[in-house]
TrEMBL record:
Chief location: other
One Pfam family this sequence matches: BSH_RND
The keyword Metal-binding is annotated on this UniProt entry: no
Protein's name according to its UniProt entry: Efflux RND transporter periplasmic adaptor subunit
Residue ranges annotated for the Multidrug resistance protein MdtA-like C-terminal permuted SH3 domain, each copy included: 276-333
Residue stretches making up the Multidrug resistance protein MdtA-like barrel-sandwich hybrid domain: 68-185
Organism of this sequence: Alkalimarinus sediminis
InterPro entries: Beta-barrel_RND_2, MdtA-like_BSH, MdtA-like_C, RND_pump_MFP
Localization terms from the record: Cell envelope
Domain CusB-like beta-barrel: 198-265
Cleaved signal peptide residues: 1-22
Length: 349
């Protein structure tokens, strides 16, 4: 009985071994396919945006000053005041200035009388021509002194050159000031708004008058203004070594104030033929070159080198090299290897 059972087990074990060493099935084994997203390579004319920042200012913003020295007698306006053209803003103490005008006038009147007397005496042959010429010279000097005194009198007051607003007041009553020391900063109503910013030498060579720009103000988050480059510096600042540009804003209904912090994105008119690829398409990269995966006709990927034109925040611009219309893997590229099979996923519209 025991022998019979043992023989039965051996038969079963033998059959199992035979099946285990049987020829494998002839049905093909499927290879792994990666699900990816892809974009087509399209070469278009683009320019790398120039990113800059600056402060908003009125185009016709002016610094107003006295043209002569002296103590400030009175100030008629404060910061933020709206003023009319010709309105008196401030004046110096007039006592000393009036005394100078009176003295110059007196000297001039006496020189004029003396010159007339010497002219009459010369015509009668009483005095030589040299004395007449000396009298005429003294008259010219007196006339110049009087002109200067009246000029100082005229410019011992500051009046508004146009309708506008006082942005800054930089003087105080009874303060002794120097000629051309800034007293007020004023913006004119008709000036328009500009942003002045500083850019590097690499950016200035790509910036031209008329280039369009978009502007974002910290005061109005989420809103975008438009404008254009209106001025481009011909030389760099001697200290910062940066170049100043000016962007003029297009008309807007927003309430603006000088000093608003602004971010500028300039679209340069100088453009080159590039293809824009999403950042996730880049597998490896250095400063000038990168690697991407390109699909072939059998849905296999081939790793190819590309030349980088520039990098943006969400894209990389590549120079011509890949075939126009070829497909480059974007999402999923980091999981691939040379020759991997892929299936391209098309997101629903």
């Amino acid at each position: 009985m025991f022998l019979r059972n043992t023989l039965g087990l051996l038969v079963v074990f033998s059959i199992s071994l035979t099946n285990a060493h049987a020829e494998p099935s002839s049905s093909p084994r499927k290879s792994t396919s990666f699900l990816v997203e892809a974009v087509q390579v399209n070469y278009l004319k683009h320019g790398k945006r120039i990113d800059a920042s600056g402060r908003l200012a009125n185009k016709s913003e002016q610094k107003l000053s006295f043209k002569t020295s002296g103590p400030v007698d009175s100030i008629m306006v404060e910061e933020g005041d709206r003023v009319k053209k010709g309105q008196l803003l401030a004046q110096l103490n007039q006592e000393e200035i009036d005394a100078q005008v009176a003295q110059s006038q007196s000297v001039y009147d006496e020189a004029k009388r003396n010159a007339a007397r010497y002219q009459a005496l010369y015509e009668k042959g009483v005095v030589p021509v040299e004395q007449l010429q000396s009298a005429e010279t003294r008259l010219e000097v007196a006339r110049s002194d009087l002109r200067i005194s009246k000029f100082n009198k005229q410019h011992s007051v500051i009046v508004a050159p146009d309708d506008g607003r006082i942005l800054k007041r930089q003087i105080e009553a009874n303060e002794m000031i120097s000629p051309f020391q800034t007293a007020f900063v004023m913006s004119m109503n008709k000036g328009g708004w500009v942003i002045r910013s500083n850019v590097t030498d690499k950016d200035i060579v790509r910036t031209n008058k008329g280039d369009r720009a978009t502007i974002q103000l910290d005061a109005y988050p989420g809103q975008t203004l438009t404008g254009y480059v209106s001025e481009v510096a011909a030389a760099a600042d001697s200290r910062s070594h940066l170049f100043e540009i000016e962007v003029t804003l297009d008309p807007t209904d927003l309430r603006l104030h000088s000093g608003f912090i602004s971010r500028i994105l300039i679209e340069p008119s100088q453009q080159e033929s590039v293809a824009l690829l999403p950042i996730e398409a880049i597998v490896e990269a250095d400063a000038t070159r990168a690697q991407v995966f390109v699909l072939d006709e059998n849905h296999k990927v081939i790793q190819k080198d590309v030349d980088i034109a520039w990098l943006a925040s969400d894209a990389v611009a590549i120079k011509p090299g890949l075939e126009e219309g070829s497909s480059v893997v974007t999402s999923g590229a980091t999981y691939l290897h040379e020759g991997a099979m892929v299936s391209v996923y098309t997101p629903p519209q």
